[in-house]
Amino acid sequence: MSDYTVSRISPTDKRAVRQMDALLEKEGIERDKNLDYSIGLFDENYDLVATGSCFANTLRCMAVSSEHQGEGLMNQVISNLIEYQYSRGNTSLFLYTKCNTARFFGDLGFYEIARVEGKVVFMENRRTGFADYLKRLQKETAANTADAAPASRGTDQIAKIGAVIMNANPFTLGHRYLLEQAAAAVDLLHVFVVSEDASLVPFSVRKQLVAEGSADLPNVICHETGPYMISNATFPSYFLKDSDTVIRSHAKLDIQVFLRIAQALSLTDRFVGEEPFSQVTGIYNQVMAEELAAAGLGCHIIPRKTDEEGAISASDVRCLIQDGNFEALKKKVPACTFQYFTSKAAEPVIQKIRAAAEVRHY
Q1: pLDDT band at 237 (very low <50, low <70, confident <90, very high)
Q2: Residues in domain N-acetyltransferase (predicted)?
Q3: What Rg value do the Cα atoms of the chain yield, rounded?
Q4: Does 150 fall in a domain?
């Protein structure tokens, strides 16, 4: 076996990037737009024979030239990427790969979480990672059900159990309306707040505001999504301008993960807000309705809450914060959100929003 040189592929190294694109394309892979670290194995002529990349705590875009398969090069790529991830503190790792290569990654210590047949498999490096997350959700539910469920029902009599997943960036009167409508339609409502810190308002604040803003709804339980729902691990297109095909593929993957959560929590219904503004979320909702119906779960798209200016959106709220228009802000958010953004604690978040070049989602 020949010796190969392992080198980082810098985005400014046009020759190496061209080789990476060509190798990925040859192996049927499109280079992900979300990459923050890439490596290559090069032969003595500095021709690329294998490559792999990372984004946050995920491994992506891994391929070995067909002329060099069977030489153990993918093992070297994975080992280098894992070593790099560990060096920056990421020990819980995720990857998605084609269905026909999932078994190979299984042999390298990755475990399947969910798949979209013929498209993609979502895997992690912890054998019980997802199972532990499901157990955590069940424990949180058991600990809160006595307070959350209506007094006239025991936990074994709950017939309708719903779920809402929200980013709440930040929590608005629109989000509050969605929770009110969903909670009124079910016996118990699980609210999942997207845990990933890919938003202008940090997760800790978003979760706090959702919890405070729904505290008076007696049948609501709040959870974290962890890295498993609508994150850059499962749905890297969520915050990006990607093609409809990519969005649909990752939406299906995210919903397959949700269906396992639904089974663990005996969910019967999922509620989402109507999405007139975001193309990505609009496509996601369409795919979700199809997939949930096929699985026998109810899917309810709730019309947006409106005011005299139209539908209330988090994008509009972020614009008001960016402009410093707190008089208008007060009319579009619950008291807890307004109180936070007029407190000293919010100053770093407000500065971040004001410094952002774009506060509207695609």
Answers
A1: very low
A2: 1-128
A3: 22
A4: yes
